[in-house]
Design a protein that fits this description.
heterodimer, A: mainly alpha, two-stranded antiparallel ribbon, 13 helices, 2 strands, B: Four Helix Bundle (Hemerythrin (Met), subunit A)
């Protein structure tokens, strides 16, 4: 054998590559139709009709939007930092995609004589991995805003970065209480613990609420879209961007929304568990493949409900002022998360002690 | 050459190259970005040693949080490479001597260290996994761990109190 040959288990490599390709394209398609859903729901809320020209019910509108963005002229400002200017949107998109690696999309399929886990990587640090990638997500915004060499872009980027850092803290603290209950950081283990019993949202309602608010802030969604506040900052950190580079920034937001919905569904709402059905029995009766498909569908429905909620909030609640945003994060959510942590720890200790003081 | 070997050399070369670029870059923002790459490659080395928890914590704390603050400050300072005044010649020489002396001390310290007999457990070491690390922290080092966590908590509460003024 040649010395430089890399020793790779090809079966696993191909399986994982196919899985990655499927999940990435799924996230992109979902993100595309999120834009459509957003415009339709906004139209419904504002008593309009929304996109209705491209295809029946305007169903081809996302394709038309994409085509438009691709055909637009590509403009790179003269005094910008060219390399960083181009790499910014790419980084935003990359980090948005990378989070999907640890989400378990379903249990396992049985095909080609082997069990195929429908999860790219079951690492035992699942949740921390998500935090790591989210904290990398700041760089897309910051680099893009700085490289544009525009005051407003820089201001927006700095706003966005400080917002994301502040809310990351509350997000982490809100999850610590949940991790004390689950005793594991692996998302698959957390889903399996919820299979036969209550979902974690019933044990951790406050933790879920804090996590939800922080997810809104991390995705830069209204009411936290301070980094793209048109009325104050022209257009936000992507002001100088045009064509598909702008499209990447806007698109990354929708991919983020999809992934964070999937994470919330996984951690707090049982992930791919089918509610009111004993999954193990169902799998034994009807075959593993049907079960895995239905479980994937179940997760998808939960995700769609969350996405609807994201959109609903955006068209209902106005934007915060910047000081209100910081007050909510530092003086509201962090103390609440700390309290939640203390109460959870207290109850767990009490339970270990058989409810005696 | 196994995949691990290949990744080891790739990460090492990239780490050293980026570390040099941190020092050489004229633009401070570029320096910070190179430094982020250094942190990412070092985290990659943790993965090679199966220390997943250390990998992600290094990434979150250093590449994710501390470097963002660095970038934040440097972006606000508006340092342009053209308008930055050239530093004093003597300052440069002093810097070279200081850095060289530090390198000498480090090399001398590592030369006698019993490091050649300790093989890195690539892909098989268990100590960096979160379970074992937690066991070590909460069994052997409870008091230092708790003291440092109270320190961090008080820093956070302090930030909120200052913000309330």
């Amino acid at each position: 054998m040649h010395e430089m040959f890399l020793i790779i288990d090809w079966a696993i490599a191909i399986e994982k590559l196919v899985l990655i390709a499927v999940i990435v394209s799924l996230s992109l398609v979902v993100a595309m139709y999120e834009t459509y859903a957003e415009r339709k729901i906004a139209a419904f809320i504002q008593d309009r009709r929304g996109p209705s020209r491209a295809g029946p019910f305007g169903i081809l509108q996302p394709l038309a939007d994409g085509l438009k963005l691709f055909m637009k002229e590509e403009i790179v400002p003269n005094l910008s930092n060219k390399f960083l200017f181009v790499i910014g949107p790419g980084l935003a998109m990359l980090t948005a995609m990378m989070t999907s690696a640890v989400v378990p999309w379903s249990s396992h399929l049985h095909a080609f004589g082997r069990d195929i886990d429908l999860q790219i990587a079951d690492v035992n640090i699942g949740i921390l991995y998500i935090f790591g990638v989210v904290s990398m997500g700041v760089y897309g915004v910051m680099i893009g805003g700085w490289a544009s060499n525009n005051k407003f872009s820089l201001l927006a980027a700095i706003r966005g970065a400080s917002q994301i850092i502040s809310y990351e803290l509350a997000m982490g603290l809100s999850l610590i209480a949940l991790l004390m209950l689950s005793g594991s950081l692996s998302l698959r283990t957390i889903v399996e613990q919820q299979q036969d019993g209550w979902y974690y949202v019933f044990y951790q309602p406050l933790g879920f609420l804090i996590f939800l608010v922080c997810a809104f802030a991390e995705c830069n969604r209204t009411p936290f879209d301070l980094s793209e506040a048109e009325s104050e900052l022209n257009f936000g950190y992507h002001q100088e961007y045009s064509s598909m580079k702008l499209g990447f920034y806007l698109f990354a937001e929708y991919v983020n929304m999809f992934i964070s919905s999937a994470v919330m569904a996984t951690i707090f709402f049982g992930g791919y568990d089918i509610p009111f059905v004993n999954d193990a029995n169902f799998g034994a009766q009807h075959g593993q493949n049907l079960l895995a498909t239905l479980q994937g569908l179940s997760l998808f429905i939960k995700v769609v409900i969350f996405i609807f909620f994201f959109i609903w909030v955006r068209w209902t609640i106005p934007r915060f002022r910047y000081d209100q945003l910081m007050n909510l994060g530092w003086k509201g959510l962090i103390p609440l998360a700390l309290l939640n942590m203390l109460v959870t720890g207290f109850v767990i200790l009490l339970k270990q002690n058989n409810w005696h003081f | 050459m196994s995949t691990t070997h290949f990744l080891f050399w790739f990460l090492s070369v990239l780490a050293i190259f980026s570390a040099i670029m941190v020092v050489v870059s004229k633009n401070p923002v570029h320096s910070v970005l190179w430094l982020i790459i250094v942190f990412i490659t070092i985290s990659g080395h943790y993965i090679l040693m199966n220390a997943q928890f250390l990998f992600i914590v290094n990434l979150i704390v250093y590449a994710g949080a501390i470097m963002v603050l660095f970038l934040y400050v440097i972006m606000l300072m508006d340092l342009n490479a053209d308008s930055e005044p050239q530093k004093n010649k003597w300052l440069k020489i002093a810097g070279v001597i200081g850095g060289g002396a530090l390198l000498l001390v480090l090399v001398a310290a590592l030369k006698d260290a019993d490091i050649k007999n300790q093989l890195a457990q690539t892909g098989s070491g268990q100590i960096g996994l979160i379970h074992n690390l937690g066991m070590a922290l909460f069994n052997d080092y409870v008091v230092p761990f708790e003291i440092s966590s109270i320190l961090f908590l008080s820093a956070m509460v302090g930030a909120v109190v200052i913000g309330k003024k």
